[in-house]
Amino acid sequence: MYGSFAKRSSFIVALVTRPASGVLANVAIGSLALTSNTMFAIASTYGVIACGLMLFVPWRHWLPQLLRNKGLYLVRATALFAATATYTASLTAMPLATCVAAAQATPLFVVLGARLALGEEVRRRDWFFFIFCAAAILAILSPWSGVNQILPTMLLISSTILSAVSTVLTKKLSMSLGATSGAIPSMIIMASLLVVPGYLWRPEYLQIGDYCLIGLSAGLLATSELGLAVLLSRFPTPFVISFHFLRLPWAVVVGILMLGQVPSMREAIGMLFLCALLAAYIAPPSLSPSFVKRSES
Questions:
Q1: Predicted local distance difference test score (pLDDT) of residue 145
Q2: Is 118:171 a contact under the CB 8 Å cutoff?
Q3: Could you tell me which of 219, 234, 230, 247 has the C-alpha nearest to residue 290?
Q4: Residue 293's pLDDT is what?
Q5: Distance CA 276, CA 29 (A)
Q6: How far does CA 207 lie from the centroid of its chain?
Q7: How far from chain centre, in Å, is Cα 18?
Q8: What is the Cα–Cα distance from 150 to 158, expressed in whole angstroms?
Q9: From CA 63, how far away is CA 121, in angstroms rounded?
């Protein structure tokens, strides 16, 4: 009984905190991109991740899957890199809360992709929740109000679609090959593809703070990616991806504490409304017997 409760609690904590690690990783990569450049920031981050994975994860756990499914892994790695690059580029030109708010259409694309590409069941309740949340966030927060930069806006839209493609492929690989096999080979491929560009775009001089940012972004991003793969292998896609909406409250907290970006009253009300809506959506499945059964397996 206690073990079941502890395991369920650990999954809930992972679902809630994973969006925070993603937001912090984006901030760290964006900060590194400002002091160097976007290509080097992404290449160095994934290079550290790949080195750590190859050192601590035996090759027999990921190399056979990589060789047998290299096409899917290559597509996922490419989509992940493009999503990270476009989001980082827009983050350097727009406020953090604006970027995160504009990216809240990602869950809707993920659920649509899971239904069309994977044949996963999506209930009417799920469609209503994701469409309503995406529309409500855009209406309440107006992420593009006052933004006259066309290029960052287009980059954000591209990042949203590419991130959804990467997530759907993560689900497919995690369900067929296992959680770690769904994420690790893609990150190693991505690091390999970025070795030459990262070297060519390397800055002439790096400070100690830059090395700290590289290590911090690598740790946070690896935690976020591996956590997503584990959760997708255990729970339905709509349930897992619904917690993506928590990136917005986490972004507001990070913006206040680290960037000095204070939200407006309308944005604060939007945060509370979003959290209440998410709580109403996740409560039934999280307390249902199916949730307990899958979390104990």
A1: 54
A2: yes
A3: 234
A4: 43
A5: 30
A6: 28
A7: 8
A8: 12
A9: 31
Low-confidence stretches of the chain (pLDDT < 50) are 1-3, 5, 285-297
Q: What Å distances lie between residue 49 and 17, 57, 90, 161, CA to CA?
A: 20, 11, 23, 24
Cα distance between residue 159 and residue 147, in whole Å: 17
Q: Is the pTM of this model over 0.85?
A: no
Q: Contact at 8 Å (CB) between 172 and 118?
A: yes
What is the separation of C-alpha 140 from the centre of its chain, rounded to a whole number of angstroms? Answer: 23
Q: Are 224 and 230 in contact (CB under 8 A)?
A: no
Q: What is the residue type of 188?
A: I
Distance separating alpha carbons of residues 168 and 130, to the nearest angstrom: 16
Burial of 8 (0-12, 13-18, 19+ CB in 10 A): middle
Give per-residue pLDDT as tens, 137-196: 666 655 555 555 677 777 888 888 888 888 888 888 887 777 677 677 778 887 887 877
Pull the structure tokens for residue 134.
């995406």
User: To which residue do tokens 């080195």 refer?
Assistant: 51
CA 170 to chain centroid, in Å, comes to 11
